[in-house]
Write a structure and sequence with these properties.
The chain is of the alpha+beta class and about 325 residues long. It has eight helices and 14 strands.
């Protein structure tokens, strides 16, 4: 190959990827900004600067924090001069970022793993969610905290009326027994699972009577069935995950309780690897509740597969008594 040919190819490649390179530069700058914030968090920890700890949190998190908890944090703050914050992975998307880190304190002989969801507020990165673990976080956490935009199914207006329901096991269900209906579909972004009750369920943020709250009840129906998402036929092979959605009672003040909803994801070993709470909002990136429906969205990337791998996805109810029959989840583009 001549020098002139190589030069022409290089010019062509540079021209074809100019936009991608620009995006990559912007992304790198955003990631660097997150890393700088994380470094300042380490400095504050080393100094025991509690007020700086609060300053790193977003307004929503601070407003939701109980005053007693704030007082305890201020009282218990202490310097850790030798603590080390080691970023393991960082990703950014629009106004959000996720950082998985490792915190080591040689003086105490401790090691913790940390996941942080950052959001931009007043031109700075602020912590909106933070979790600690004694063991490394499952890779799903990254995909769960920074999910993709809705895929083809969402762009089409989420046409659930065209999606078939899972069959029920008439061998164990009585004709008059009431239970959740289940639908599912997947596209390039998510596996969408929708549960349907016979009537409207308590809306997120609605009041819960104190007597019900004392028993941990919202006044709603029993939780939807726990479903395992099985992936086969993909190359490389994907992973199977189990997802559960529940209504929960949230304390929002003195003798004041509201309805919230959460979802939990487990790995093949039945270990909890991710949780997501809706709070008082009716819709989030991974969970939404409206009317008689609960919709859960699992990032396809969190199943270690891509749309191009043409995976076969199946839903199976977890439990000793199967009320829902195994359900083959169709690809939306194939309908």
């Amino acid at each position: 190959m001549t020098y002139l040919t190589v030069l022409c190819l290089l010019v062509f490649q540079l021209s074809a990827t100019a936009a991608d390179d620009a995006d990559r530069i912007r992304t790198s700058a955003a990631e660097q900004s997150v890393l700088e914030t994380y470094k300042r968090m380490e400095t504050a920890d080393r100094k025991g600067d509690v007020e700086a700890w609060f300053a790193f949190r977003d307004k929503k998190s601070l407003d939701a924090m109980n005053p007693a908890v704030k007082a305890a944090i201020r009282k218990g703050g202490r310097a850790r001069p030798q603590v080390q914050y080691e970023p393991v992975i960082v990703r950014t998307a629009a106004s959000n970022a996720v950082l998985i880190g490792k915190i080591t304190d040689p003086a105490a002989g401790t090691t913790q793993y940390q996941s942080i969801l950052f959001t931009t507020e007043d031109g700075a990165w602020k912590v909106s969610r933070e979790r600690f673990s004694e063991s490394p976080f499952d890779p799903f956490v990254l995909h769960g905290l920074l999910p993709p935009e809705g895929g083809a199914f969402t762009r089409a207006g989420s046409p659930w009326k065209k999606i078939p329901y899972a069959g029920v096991n008439t061998a164990v269900l009585g004709k008059k027994e009431v239970m959740w209906k289940v639908q599912a579909i997947f596209d390039e972004s998510f596996v969408y699972v929708r549960y349907e009750w016979v009537s409207d369920i308590p809306a997120p943020g609605s009041r819960v009577p104190p007597d019900c709250a004392a028993e941990g009840k919202t006044g709603g129906p029993p939780p939807p069935p726990v479903m395992q998402i099985k992936v086969t036929g993909a190359e490389p092979q994907g992973r199977s995950l189990t997802v559960a959605a529940n209504d929960v009672v949230s304390a929002t003040g003195a003798n004041r309780f509201t309805v919230s909803y959460s979802m939990t994801v487990k790995n093949a070993a039945a270990e909890d690897i991710f949780d997501y709470s809706l709070g008082n909002d009716s819709s989030g990136r991974l969970l939404s509740v409206q009317g008689r429906y609960i919709e859960v969205r699992i990032p396809l990337s969190g199943l270690d597969v891509t749309e191009s791998a043409k995976p076969k996805i199946q839903l199976e109810e977890q439990g000793s008594v199967l009320r829902i029959l195994p359900y083959a989840v169709e690809h939306f583009g194939d309908r």
